[in-house]
Sequence to fold (90 residues):
Amino acid sequence: MPPEPEQPERYDFEYKRNGTVNLFACFQPLAGWRHIEVTERRTKADFAKQMKDLVDVYYREADVIRLVVDNLNIHTPSALYEVFPPQEAR
Fold:
């Protein structure tokens, strides 16, 4: 439809969704370090794998890792226990 007098022209577009992905982001702002990993899904197993990499690969020498996560349902300690044996999850 043409615009009303003194109104800008309006147009519509069609959005085509080409799929979805999940981004896990780990970063240490004061050190200028960040790591982004893209996964096809967002599951507890994916979250547990990211935590394992954080502890075993990126910060294996750290005594303490302070983790800040949002309130997404997969960001729980139980995710570690569902994926790994109790000794490793701890």
